Amino acid sequence: MKKTLTLIISIIMLFSITTACAKNSNAPSSKKDSKYKVNSSLTVAISADQGTLDPAVTMDNSAWKITYPAYERLVDFDGESTNVKAGLAKDWSVSKDGKTWTFHLNSGHKFSDDTPVDAKAVKFSFERLLKVAKGPASVYSEISKVEAPTSDTVEFTLKQNFPPFLSTLAANYVNIVNPKVMDKEKDGDMGQGYLANHTMGSGPYQLTTWKKGEYIQLGLNPHSTVKPALKKVTFKIVSDSSAQKLQLQKGDVDIAEGVPVDQIESLKSVKNVTLLQKPSLLVDYVYINSSKGNEALKNKKVRQALNYGIDYPSLIKAVQQGYATQSRGPIPKGLWGYDNNAKQYQLDADKAKSLLKEAGVSNVTLNLLYSDNNTWWETEALTIQSQLANIGVKVKLNKVAYATSRDMMDKGEFDLALGVWSPDFADPFAFMNFWYDSKNFGLAGDRAFYKNAKVDQLLAEAATSNDQSKREVLYKNIQKIVIDDAPYILLYQKDYLLPMNKNVKGFEFNPMLQGIYNLQDMSK
Amino acid sequence: MMKMVMRRMVFLVFVIFGVSLVTFILSHIIPGDPASMMAGQHASKQAVEHIRQQLGLDQPIWIQYVEYMKGLLSGDLGTSIRTQNPVIDDLANYFPATLELAIAAFIIAILIGIPLGIVSAVKKNQFWDHASRIFSISGVSIPVFFSGLIAILIFYGYLNWFPANGRIDMNINPPTRITSFYIIDSLLSGDMIALTSSLQHIVLPALVLSYAQLAIITRQVRASMLEVLSQEYVRTARANGIHGYNLLIRYALRNALVPTVTVIGTSFGALLGGAVVTETIFDWPGMGKYVVDSIAYLDFPAIMGFTLFISIGYVLINLMVDVTYFILNPQMKE
């Protein structure tokens, strides 16, 4: 037996050595990639791998960080502001009734295969998006047709006036895709299978390597007019937050996206690390089920009492370590329409108790629905439970899987539920019309199942006017009503925190593009 | 033996049918809607409904099942909702990594576990027995996510001996694809750079994964060795002057191994399953992470594909265990 074993091992060793030598003499198939200097490449640690990268399919912020720099759009957000500036389009105009938008394209933009970007490509991208009819298409339900009268003119006809239209074009919903993707079509999928794993855009970067489950690499689009300093960007999947922190400290990654707020503090003392902190437009709030939940919640006074029962500063400290600002009205600070004088609820236990008494409610028990979708929700739910206990409201926690929680929210199977919201476009419409219009009951936006005929009417008016100052007044008035009706507990507006290596330069945080990097302007 | 193998293969068809039915029903009755996940945060009811129709989710469940089985019979596992890739391609992409990790951990567990068990049995209730007990029991008791993090902290954080995650260095091209196992492929293509990097990357996750299974093998080997060593034929062998290595390996171990093979077989299944957590900690690009993401997204085709794949794997492992019995114990042939 011993002899046989020795013989087998010797044969294996001999075999591997001979094959090794034979192949080695023919130049090894892989060698260290020395083409890129260290300071022209950037490594970002991300928490999870991506699903599809097809711009017409994905609604996922983390996929957008790959697609956004690989494609171009008609317009772009301007630096750190929520205003738009020229992109593929050099100028644009809108008809008086707001239904016809005309864009004139810049020349010289090219897809990564050297095909010029023209009006036909723009028309194709919109038509493909609407035909594929997945998530991003829902933003454009108002488009009735897209035309390309000349090679550099695109005309959109809308079914009705939709003032936020321009702003949606700067977000990630319509990236202009090379029409040649149709060569890759399989079974009538309009290239969805191909674009799930490839990019075909005119942005400064393109997807070069995707080792599933390991990393995603972007390289330069040789035909782009922009010549970025970072030649290679790697998004490395490091799912464990402690491992991300360790790799950032050791300089193995330049940016660590997935470090939770309770671990951020310890990074502040690390020599080579800097912490970027900016107010974001992401708000965290509680839905109070105003028509399908506990009977007591139909009474405005009970909902107000809940709003008075929260100690906002201490909740923000407990849940976000202070890296957040209490909300003032539904529209976050930083977006036009924000009202500096809007009423802000503060802790007033006596008032809360007397409101409950006036409503004839005592010994009420409410369930609070949440999921593991956000790491901080567990602490938040516990904090709310203990704070509301002080005004005599018993809260029963109901934690379920994320997909299940969405289903229950849509059906209204909860009394209270935790939620976050960030805008799809830079317009108060993205908060007000979604949250308070009774047309949007359920997941679509009115997650409190709140209905007020007056509010519905004012919202419709604000949604179809092109006059921004008039809309601002309208939204201000609506805010007064809804803050008093209190279908939500407006908790806070979260800060965006990003730990990165001190040598990373040029990153601009745009609150409309959270999690997306302006790679073309960055350097090391 | 051929008869048994044939019987098992027929049995496999029923397993596939049963598992597919149960998984299909379970994954469709839990509350949650992949169409809503796909439509995004703020999609309208109409948009969600439209996607539901595209995915065929508006059909009665039995029609959906029949459609799925039709595809399955022609070898089509469907398209993943999340990645938009054919599920079979996704599995083919991720499975070799899981298998490579599980095999590496398996080899380590056997190479350490069996000798440790023998030592424990021979030095029963002495220092080495106690030491091996403490060592192996702590492997089962410490959760993988903890031992994994500690390993990363020590071997990557302080000592810098091994990388913290991944399967191969990002700046090295993976070896030419032959078997999809990086270590074997780099050996076959003689790519020493890729080999070194793959070995460096697999050490930590494989050690951590095997550590959890070590106790089961060690304790089993110890128990069966003790039983065998007290048997009369061993005493006779001793009386005939056979001792030391010869006695332990040729006489005792061969018989002690028969019950151990079952344990080892099931522990390989556990390694495949346990790889899920290990893969997450070390970002090993295997099926574990893929299926966890798919479950969170309610990606039915991916969940179904994974479950079927693993069930078939289990049946085949059991078959291999039984075949090993035949080889180890000729009496079984009767």
Automatic annotation (TrEMBL), chain A:
Keywords for the protein's UniProt record, in alphabetical order: Signal
Residue ranges of every copy of the Solute-binding protein family domain listed in the record: 84-441
InterPro entries the UniProt entry points to: Peptide/Ni-bd (IPR030678), SBP_5 (IPR039424), SBP_5_dom (IPR000914)
One protein family per Pfam: SBP_bac_5
Signal peptide residue numbers: 1-22
Name of this protein: ABC transporter substrate-binding protein
Protein's organism: Terrilactibacillus laevilacticus
Automatic annotation (TrEMBL), chain B:
Membrane topology: Multi-pass membrane protein
Pfam families according to UniProt: BPD_transp_1, BPD_transp_1_N
PROSITE patterns found in the cross-reference section: ABC_TM1
Subcellular localization: Cell membrane
Regions that span the bilayer: 101-122, 134-159, 198-217, 256-282, 302-328
Keyword tags: Cell membrane, Membrane, Transmembrane, Transmembrane helix, Transport
Gene3D superfamilies reported for this sequence: MetI-like
Keyword Transmembrane helix: yes
Occurrences of domain ABC transmembrane type-1 (ranges): 95-321
Top-level lineage group: Bacteria
Primary localization: membrane
Family of the protein in this entry: Belongs to the binding-protein-dependent transport system permease family.
PANTHER family cross-referenced by the UniProt entry: D,D-DIPEPTIDE TRANSPORT SYSTEM PERMEASE PROTEIN DDPB-RELATED, DIPEPTIDE TRANSPORT SYSTEM PERMEASE PROTEIN DPPB-RELATED
Name of this chain's protein: ABC transporter permease
Organism whose genome encodes this protein: Terrilactibacillus laevilacticus
